[in-house]
Write a structure and sequence with these properties.
- This protein has eight helices and twelve strands.
- The strands form two sheets. Strands 3-2-1-11-12-9 form a six-stranded mixed sheet. A six-stranded mixed sheet has the order 4-5-6-10-7-8, covered by helices on one side.
- Strand 5, helix 6 and strand 6 (143-145) form a beta-alpha-beta unit.
- The protein has helices spanning 13-25, 44-53, 62-67, 78-90, 93-100, 129-137, 218-227, 232-240; strands at 3-6, 30-33, 57-58, 105-108, 111-114, 143-145, 152-157, 163-167, 173-175, 181-186, 199-204, 208-214.
- The chain has 242 residues and is of the alpha/beta class.
- The relative contact order is 0.19.
- It has a single domain (3-240), classed as Metallo-dependent phosphatases (Purple Acid Phosphatase, chain A, domain 2, 4-Layer Sandwich), CATH 3.60.21.10.
């Protein structure tokens, strides 16, 4: 079975719709969501509705937890704090209830799901091989999927314990090698930060993951951000992919 693995949608329904269409075209039958469903963007309820319609296998990110009052926003920068306060105000009761059911980690047949890392599922930015090694040490999983950094990333641990990592390119296929272990980040759907504004996701079939990029209506999302009175930077960064 092919699975679309996504993360960091951040209330960007235009980007999510483009990814879901591409996932359907790729033959994906299930959707895994690695958190940060809301925050930053203008359409939290619309995004949640899409996930509910797809019966997505979802976990919570730090922004999702903050939106329902169980993550300290003092950890956020000023722009993120403004955006999460707005999100909490506009979320419907149904949207709030949905986010409240989610945890930041989950074990599935496809692998371990975390938002940040195995060591810190909520808040760690997993950017180095050393930090990935600490997460590998905490479990015997073959594959873990993570998000939070907004960068499509692979970390691989060989049987001798050596860990290396790299940024995944569009179309790159990561095929599992027996004896090796992997941590895979699909990048961000709604706010990529690798200077490519296209939405990012993985297609996973149980033996390999392939990186995908999808263009979407950035101008429409940016216009909605401005209309909502959210900080201008949240609109501008979408065009730059940062």
């Amino acid at each position: 079975m092919r699975v679309a693995v996504v993360s960091d949608i951040h209330s960007n329904v235009e980007a999510l719709d483009a990814v879901l269409a591409a996932a359907d075209e790729a033959g994906c039958e299930r959707l895994i969501v690695l958190g940060d469903i809301v925050g930053y963007g203008p359409d939290p309820d619309a995004v949640i509705e899409r996930l509910r319609e797809r019966d997505a296998v979802a976990i919570a990110g730090n922004h999702d937890l903050a939106a329902v009052g169980v993550f300290d926003v003092q950890w956020f920068n000023e722009v993120a704090t403004i955006a999460i306060a707005w999100t909490s105000e506009v979320l419907s009761a149904e949207g709030t209830a949905y986010l409240s059911t989610l945890q930041p980690t989950r074990t599935t047949a496809d692998g371990v799901l975390v938002h940040g890392s195995v060591r810190d599922p909520v808040a760690e930015y997993l950017l180095s091989a050393d930090d990935a090694g600490a997460s590998f040490d905490l479990g015997d999983f073959v594959v873990a999927f993570f998000g939070h950094t907004h960068l499509p990333t692979v970390f691989r641990r060989r049987p001798d314990g050596f860990v290396n990592g790299w940024v995944m390119t569009e179309g790159e296929a990561i095929a599992l090698v027996p004896g090796e272990r992997y941590m895979l980040n699909p990048g961000s759907v709604g706010q990529p930060r690798d200077r490519d504004p296209r939405a990012s996701f993985l297609v996973w079939d149980g033996e390999r993951a392939i990186g995908h990029r999808v263009p979407y209506e950035v101008e429409r999302t940016a216009s909605k951000i401005r209309d909502a009175g959210l900080p201008e930077w949240l609109a501008l960064r979408l065009f730059a992919g940062q």
